[in-house]
Amino acid sequence: MNHLIILPIVLPLFVAAISLLPLFDRDIARQRSLTLAATAALVLISAILLGQAATGAVTVYALGDWQAPFGIQLLGDRLSTLMLLTTSILLLAALLYGSAGEDKQGRFYYPLMMFQIMGINGAFLTADIFNLFVFFEILLIASYSLLIHGGGKHKTGAAVHYVLLNLVGSAIFLFALGIIYGTLGTLNIPDLAIAVRNLNSDGALLAEVGGLMLFAVFGLKAAILPLQFWLPRTYSSAPASVVALFAIMTKVGIYSIMRVHDLVFGANAGVLANLGIDWMWGLSLLTLAIATLGIISSPSVKRLASHLVILSVGTLMVAISVNTQASTAAALYYAVHSTFAAAALFLIGDLISLERERSLDRIVPGRRLANAVPIGILFTLSAITLIGMPPLSGFIGKLMVMQSITNASEIALAWPLLLIGSLAALIAFSRSGSTLFWKATGDPVDQSPIVARQFTAVWMLVLAALFMSVFAGPITEYTTATAAQLADFEADPSQLMRAGE
């Protein structure tokens, strides 16, 4: 049995627990060294797991050797390991940025970041929806505290909405689990996929209600319209390194939809085949439209980044709703690209606010930046990536999504919204760039508050977009093989049950 797969969950838990012990709990430097070393190890472990999954091998890890549907299982396939590696790299950049001073604003920054990553990694690896609920709760509880890290009325006010909304979401999640377990007798995802196919009409209505409640919860996590309104205020008020990590949070919701919908409620789900797919299509288009309006009206760089996150969610949901192997492959490439690009823009917004003092990152004329050239280069590269201009990863990802839509009526609806979204981003970046860098007045601050580690962290994320452009061929081959593997699981979910024996 491959025990390596449990380390992305156990290692952050272990590091967080150590950071709370007497030798570490009041020593930020020790916590920083320990956490950064553990995160580097997580990147290495995730890369090894992805390398194993790239061969086509599927790891089903049964804790305590208890087999499904009674035991707890972890699933390491192409999809979950891709998300693990993306998360680990993102965490390393976020922690590097936070280590420049944000970590000193509270004693529990590093333990909370580790609990957060434990929840995210667990959500990506679990093979049953009850443990998906458990890991959701772990990452949410950590995120509640991280949102108000450093204190402040603005952060607290934004966090209250986020907490209340997610408490409601957790309650709906729990009711959905009860309905599904009462109807189908299992919560293991592959076992659910088998049970749904044998469902008779008597239990179909209840299972449908439970399935739709699950999608509502996943839609809330992913910030799909009409459950996206919490995101701009919450993300724009959070500490920079925290919100950079939060760039993966909407992808947890997207991942859950892909995993549960495709495997359990896909085309082979009998009376519940393609459950909610029409709703997904309509909501994805509306999400694109509302995100475009938000982009045009963004008053600050962080708000702009927040609305671009929603735009990426709409783009991903369009690809998922098309529901073909090509669209799934496109969605996976776009998901990784948009995670790194959005995180980079959040950090760039913070760099700008640090150097402009009272004007912060608001898109208004203000003080000239002390590091205008390096920040301007990062801003420009980030803009090109997020707008979707060639030759960077945003262009490749959006082109893949558009090419995966082959139905004429779907093209007529989706293509204009996707292109208008890019046009809105182009206008917004042009307006903000000219205001922030060309209309600046006055002398810059004598000594820049920005340190090298912050620039290094942002460059890591920006270079990820360049890397995804240069190595687009191998990466798209991987995502295409991932889409084929997911289709294979959907056709025969029992192979996942046999793999764990």
Give the topology.
Elements: H1 7-19, H2 22-25, H3 28-54, E1 59-62, E2 73-76, H4 78-98, H5 109-125, H6 129-147, H7 153-184, H8 189-197, H9 201-222, H10 231-237, H11 240-246, H12 249-264, H13 277-296, H14 301-322, H15 325-356, H16 372-387, H17 393-404, H18 408-438, H19 452-470, H20 472-491, H21 494-499
Helix pairs in contact: 1-3, 1-5, 3-4, 4-5, 4-11, 4-15, 4-19, 5-6, 6-7, 7-9, 7-10, 8-12, 9-12, 10-14, 11-15, 12-14, 12-20, 13-14, 13-18, 14-15, 14-17, 14-18, 15-16, 15-17, 15-19, 15-20, 16-18, 16-19
- What fraction, in percent, of the residue positions are helical? over 70%
Distance between the termini: 10 Å
Strand line-up across the major sheet? 1-2
* pLDDT averaged residue by residue: 89
Radius of gyration: 22 Å
Tell me the number of helical segments per DSSP (H or I, 4 or more residues long).
21
- Catalogue the unreliable spans: none
Please write the string of helix (H) and strand (E) elements: HHHEEHHHHHHHHHHHHHHHHHH
What's the β-strand tally?
2
Largest sheet: 2 strands, antiparallel
Summarize this, please?
The chain contains 21 helices and 2 strands.
Walkthrough of the structure:
This protein starts with 6 loop residues before the first helix and ends with a helix. The mean pLDDT is 89. The radius of gyration is 22 Å and the shape is globular. Helices cover 74% and strands 2% of the residues. Strands 1-2 form a two-stranded antiparallel sheet. The longest helix is centred in the middle third of the chain and has 32 residues, at 153-184. The protein is an all-alpha fold and 501 residues long. It contains 21 helices and two strands.
